[in-house]
Amino acid sequence: MSCTHDHNCEDHECSSDWSLYKHIDLSKVSALNESVSGSVKSVFKAWEQRLLSSEEHLESNDGDPELLVFVPFTSDVKIKSISIVGGPDGTSPSKLRVFINREGIDFSDAESMQAVQEWELAENLNGVLEYQTRYSKFQSVGNITLHFPESFGGDTTQIRYIGFKGEATQLKRDVVATIVYEIRPNPSDHKTRAETGGGFSQV
pLDDT digits over 165-177, tens only? Predict the structure, then answer.
């Protein structure tokens, strides 16, 4: 789905204000079947930089265009749309299948599991297309797995940019809640059942 609003997208929600780039836990992003280990991290960048030319990009192994990309977030997010900028000459991905909050998915899992949503992609070399999610299904997303089964006929699949638009919650996934238990309660701090007429008091 392309952006067809009657305004300058640089100044409205189509732009970086809604980008979830800063909420991606980049150090933990990974991909299966990437030709260069770790190259998947290069496709996540600020919205304004999505079309900057760079030698770095994600590419599948030669003769096998399938890719699986795992993206964790530093806080739970709500995803409104996804943008994919692929490579030229038939190497752009032609289909996207998405799974949320499922870790450790491999190609066998991806092929047998029901995706949360699927899209038939267009070749988006200019970065003007966004694919809207079924928003109600993309709430409280801690991680997302992107399955690209095939390209537009190329021997490999190339991806130059992956972007997410949406909102982040205040829940930080790396915060560990500490629960303090009262081991030796002080009787003077609690009303007894007798004092409250047989009921239980709120402490």
Answer: 999 986 665 444 4
**How far is CA 87 from each of CA 49, 52, 110, 126, 144, rounded to the nearest angstrom?**
16, 13, 23, 10, 22
Q: Which residues are paired to 109 by β-bridges?
A: none
Candidate CATH numbers 1.10.150.110, 3.30.40.230, 2.60.120.470, 2.170.130.30; the one for domain 13-172: 2.60.120.470
Q: State the Cα torsion 52-57-62-64 to the nearest 10°.
A: -100
Q: What is the pLDDT of residue 91?
A: 97
Residue 121 DSSP SS3 = coil
Q: Residue 3 class from Cβ within 10 Å (0-12 exposed, 13-18 middle, 19+ buried)?
A: middle
User: Mind listing the pLDDT tens digit for each residue in 117-149?
Assistant: 999 999 999 999 999 999 999 999 999 999 999
CA–CA gap between residue 50 and residue 43 (Å, rounded): 8
Question: What is the rounded CA–CA span in Å between residue 160 and residue 6?
Answer: 27
pTM (2 decimals)? Answer: 0.78
